[in-house]
């Protein structure tokens, strides 16, 4: 999910000493919401999140990293202590919370892939998740693929017990997430339904970006194909019941993947995204967009105002690093290559398109996407009134899961 602010109504969580669970900084608080949703899954503690938020200096990116790292290290140490004493459940809980807190620590440090703090915090994030995975009740298998120039990694999680054939949810990471983060976003809910879940990261995501330096690529069908090849050979995977769940930027990646792989039985887009060049042109205007396309050498000087605010500049630079570019104009040109124009009619499986109120990622994208898709489309709008507005439904994650999981179960039950 993204750093942008959700339109979900803000709630002041008030303790004996005043407001908690808020830093007073808009960008920080948008990220803080992600740890609040992690608490739903036992991967964050509201008291720990509030104590950490209370120590952060608003607007200070260094303070954000330091305080989250401090909390993460303390919780990880407690997990190690519990494990050494034979308390596996307590240890697993600590490791999952530490995994979330390490993710928070490096979130704003992704502007330069060579940063040591990024590398250290990311490594700790992965290590904490794998320590938790070793203590989980269900099966966890690590996936690492390098084939024909494609690098992908992730984890296949399967319910405990015999490996009867089950549906499998494939959940690609988004713009700023990791395969490990996908455990909370997708895997926990799928496992509760009795399904398998493959959480996966490819170029421009997680360790494929931070460790291998491979930037995001628009042709996700090329990435998905070897992933599915690997998946269908695993025990307990029903090859006729593969569901692709794309959240945040994966709302583009997932449908793009389906355009080149007809083994996907159902597709969920949260939200649906169609053509980033068209979206950018709508926001920038025809004249400026033409300068982008013309590689106008004076354009970046004119765009410098977009980098005046330190936090906004950090957001842009993180995205530039994701695409392997160093200027705004190069970033906009790279983003414009991410399109489903002329390809979406290849998507013939059933599609669920989610439309959360106020989600910046779906602005102007949903209508052309729905119109171009070749298969049957179901649309569902989430609203602020029900507490599920903003990017990827904000704090309304159980509302999201009810709609998505019910649709998947119903869709897979229909005759082919």
TrEMBL record:
SUPFAM superfamilies according to UniProt: alpha/beta-Hydrolases (SSF53474)
InterPro entries: AB_hydrolase_fold (IPR029058), FrsA_esterase (IPR050261)
Listed GO MF terms: hydrolase activity
Domain of life assignment: Bacteria
Keywords noted in UniProt: Hydrolase
Keyword Hydrolase: yes
Family: Belongs to the AB hydrolase superfamily.
Record-linked PANTHER family: CONIDIAL PIGMENT BIOSYNTHESIS PROTEIN AYG1 (AFU_ORTHOLOGUE AFUA_2G17550), DIENELACTONE HYDROLASE DOMAIN-CONTAINING PROTEIN-RELATED
This protein's name: Alpha/beta hydrolase
Species the sequence originates in: Actinomycetospora chlora
